[in-house]
Amino acid sequence: MKAQSTFSLELLKNIIARNSAVPGAMLPVLHEIQDTVGFVPTAAVPLIADALNLSRAEVHGIITYYHHFRQQPGAKYVLKLCSAEACQAVGSAALAEHAKATLECNFHESTTDGLFALEPVYCLGLCACGPSMMVNDAEVHGRMTPLQFDALVQELRGAK
Amino acid sequence: MSVTIFVPSDSAALAVGADKVAAAIQAEAIMRKIDIKIIRNGSRGMFWLETMVEVATSQGRIAFGPVTVADVSSLFDASFTSGGKHALALGLTEEIPYLKKQERLTFARVGITDPLSLDDYLAHEGYVGLRNAIQLTTEQIVQQVTDSGLRGRGGAAFPTGIKWKTVLATIAAQKYIVCNADEGDSGTFSDRMVMEDDPFVLIEGMTIAGLAVGATQGYIYVRSEYPHAIAVLNAAIATANKHGYLGNNILGSGKAFQLQVRRGAGSYVCGEETALLESLEGKRGIVRAKPPLPAIEGLFGQPTVINNVISLATVPVILAKGAAFYKNFGVGRSHGTLPFQLAGNIKQGGLVEKAFGITLRELLQDFGGGSLSGRPIRAVQVGGPLGAYLPVSQFDTAMDYEAFAAIGAAVGHGGMVVFDDSVDMAKQARYAMAFCALESCGKCTPCRIGSTRGVEVMDKIIAGKERKKQIGLLRDLCDTMSNGSLCAMGSMTPYPVLSALNHFPEDFE
Questions:
Q1: Which of A16, A22, A26, A27 should we substitute to test contact with B (largest number of B Cβ atoms within 10 Å)?
Q2: Cβ contact (<8 Å) for A24 and B16?
Q3: Do B418 and A126 count as a contact with CB atoms less than 8 A apart?
Q4: Is the pLDDT of residue A4 over 70?
Q5: Which one of B90, B199, B338, B386 has the lowest number of neighbouring Cβ atoms within 10 Å?
Q6: Do A35 and A83 belong to one domain?
């Protein structure tokens, strides 16, 4: 995900125009906005409402219903730690505690430097090689140990 | 002569470094001037052996695993490209007992082929089912599916043929085929594997469904947590379109079928079929009251076949080999095979496709090899977060929809999460309620309020406050949720809660 935190209304309008003709356009529109901008800005709400003939309240209701959509810029690296049963069975809770302590932030929070955010996720379909996690909705990691977590964080810090 | 080497590209392999292993093998081969060709196949589903590298030899494919980047150099030292001896050598892949003992029908090609190679797919009996279906009338296709005994593999186990028959019989200008690929249950990954490792089989199954009921548009609703599956499906759909397997004139039959992937957005309840349809329509994923059934008024109010990935991916083998062939697998009213998924604290986790009738114990011991931690297995949750926790005393239950229903459990999607004796079942019961509270769509009161009250009651039980009274309250709450909820989210959350309470009462004392 190449997130940019600056965006123009023109960009949002183009995304909405490109998608508004597809049946059930809402999710495709929101996904493309978030993939491009990094989050769904408040400024997008009236534009979407207008294009899809909905009220702003309805659009807001949809954005906030789905866990995936963010209304504020996310961290550079969003780390999603699987917290579902299969990963629980192999120590995901301990890994999450380690991650929180290491990054000094809780779930749904970002580190003070804005580099990392921690989110719980409920299953990545990697249930036979847990604990698992995903970086920026793209890169998956399995059989994570606290040591491997630290190495990954180190690597990402180095890549900034 | 070039040696063919297989390095899986399934997410589970990627998660343990398969890309790096592939790159290291390529680099080492160049350095040593050995001519190799790397194929990124799917996973064989033996995840404890990932990254499992295979080498094509005149005797068949030979496996090595689990391979890490650090092993690559020594593999070359041992001449693994010509089948040399190495500590990680596993022999002929097909002879590995875990694979050899399986009955792979739906997963026949998974792990063997390059997922995105249409040629590979065709060379392994791909599109035989569709070619047969084109020769049949719509009624005959539906009859084949009905006669096969196939039941909804997403967990509800509703007869697939009956669903299709309803859509076929409903007159409408536009009908839809929707694939429910919102595989949100922990302990399940068979949908993901089909999508990533054999996408054409799902495309073929949906195309057959389209022909069978007269639907020209299909959607695959994939959860956003599966980015790799989405990418593979999109690439496979483009290939299928290019070669006339999708589009306006399928294989020259004059019939049309278009297919699109839609990405979910992290809502578990969207795995419930009516919530999924709402989400596809661009709304909040809130459960609809039934009736009307989606088969009559589904997507955009039109007749819609909505089936799980595995149900649809099983249709091609039924049409290719006949309903009777498929029906002969299984026991009682559970016909065919199920791709069981061994997950959690298990030594040999992975995918085991077997006919119904195998016992839980056989799966856990003969295939799974016991717990990963080496401690005794204490509980297994079968069928996802809404499935019951089974104690050791129930491990001889046969995997069969009716046998499971008889003990107050559900086979569901065939996922099983193993816990060793360090598990605290009261905590697991609390988690089930907390998960329901987090993911409830909010439409019906028993689920929305019941789950939150359930967490509070569990907290009191765990804290030791008025335990007896609270347990009575918990049972009462579960009764309300079971009988009063609109969908499985609220009505089945009591399965894990009550099974934990009934089978492991010592954890609630």
A1: A27
A2: no
A3: no
A4: no
A5: B90
A6: no
Residue B332 has pLDDT above 70, yes or no: yes
Q: Average pLDDT, stretch B192-209?
A: 98
Give Cα separations from A117 to A92, A107, A112, A154, B505 (angstroms): 17, 8, 10, 15, 39
Query: Cβ A85–B417 below 8 Å, yes or no?
Result: yes
Over the stretch A20-38, which tens digit does the pLDDT of each residue have?
999 999 999 999 999 999 9
Nearest by CB to B417, which of A25, A62, A127? A127
Where residue B316 falls among pLDDT bands split at 50, 70, 90? very high
The predicted pLDDT at position A5 comes to 57
Q: What is the pTM of this model?
A: 0.97
Any idea where the domains of chain B sit in the sequence? 3-98, 118-327, 330-420, 425-508
A138 in the same domain as A98:
yes
Q: What is the DSSP letter of B366?
A: I
Residues of chain A contacting B263 with CB distance shorter than 8 Å: 27-28, 31
Q: Chain A contact for B349, CB < 8 A?
A: yes
Across residues A88-106, what is the average pLDDT? 97
- Considering the segment(s) B330-420 as one domain, its CATH architecture is Roll (3.10)
Q: Into how many domains does chain A fold? A: 2
In this structure, whether the domain defined by B118-327 belongs to CATH 3.40.50.11540 is answered with: yes
Using CA atoms, how far apart are residues B7 and B67, in angstroms rounded to an integer? 10
Cβ separation B15–A86 shorter than 8 A = no
Give how far B131 is from chain A: nearest CA, Å: 30
Locate tokens 């010509």: which residue? B82
Let me know how many helices (H) and strands (E) chain B has, helices first. Answer: 21, 16
Q: Considering only alpha carbons, which residue of chain B is nearest residue A65?
A: B284
- CA gap A129, B347 in Å, rounded: 10
Flag whether A14 is in a domain.
yes
Whether residues A58 and A81 fall in one domain = no
* pLDDT reported for residue A1: 43
B10, B189, B225, best to mutate vs chain A, most A CBs in 10 Å: B225
Q: What is the pLDDT of residue A36?
A: 95
Pair (A150, A83) in one structural domain = yes
Q: Compare CB distances from B187 to A127, A138, A142 and report the shortest one's residue.
A: A127
**Same domain membership, residue A105 and residue A150:** yes
- At B9, the amino acid letter reads S
Interface predicted TM-score of the whole assembly (ipTM), two decimals: 0.95
> Domain for residue A1, yes or no?
no
- pLDDT tens profile B334-377: 999 999 999 999 999 999 999 999 999 999 999 999 999 999 99
**Which residue of A23, A122, A138 is in closest CB contact with B186?**
A122
Which fold is adopted by the domain B3-98? Glutaredoxin (3.40.30)
Query: In Å, how far is B184's CA from the nearest CA of chain A?
Result: 6
**3-state helix/strand/coil string of chain A:** CCCCCCCCHHHHHHHHHHHCCCCCCHHHHHHHHHHHHCCCCCCHHHHHHHHHCCCHHHHHHHHHHCCCCCCCCCCCEEEEEECCHHHHCCCHHHHHHHHHHHHCCCECEECCCCCEEEEEECCCCCCCCCCCEEECCCEEECCCCHHHHHHHHHHHHHCC
Mean pLDDT of B275-300: 97
Residue A74 — pLDDT band, cuts 50, 70, 90? confident
| Distance of residue B264 Cα from the nearest chain A Cα, in angstroms | 8
Chain B, window 35-64: residues with a beta carbon less than 8 angstroms from a chain A beta carbon: 47-48, 50
**Does any domain span residue A71?**
no
Both A25 and A91 in a single domain?
no
Final residue of a structural domain among A40, A65, A90: A65
CATH 1.20.1440.230 fits B425-508, yes or no: yes
CA B260 to CA B219: how far, in whole Å?
Answer: 5
Q: Which domain holds residue A43?
A: 9-65
pLDDT > 70 fraction of chain B, expressed in percent and rounded: 100
CATH of the domain at A122: 3.40.30.10
- The answer to whether residue A48 neighbours chain B at the CB level (below 8 Å) is no
B window 420-479, beta carbon within 8 A of A: 420, 423, 428, 431, 435, 438-439
What average pLDDT score do residues A78-90 get? Answer: 97
Nearest to B224 among A68, A85, A126 (CB): A68
Is residue A57 located within the same domain as residue A90? no
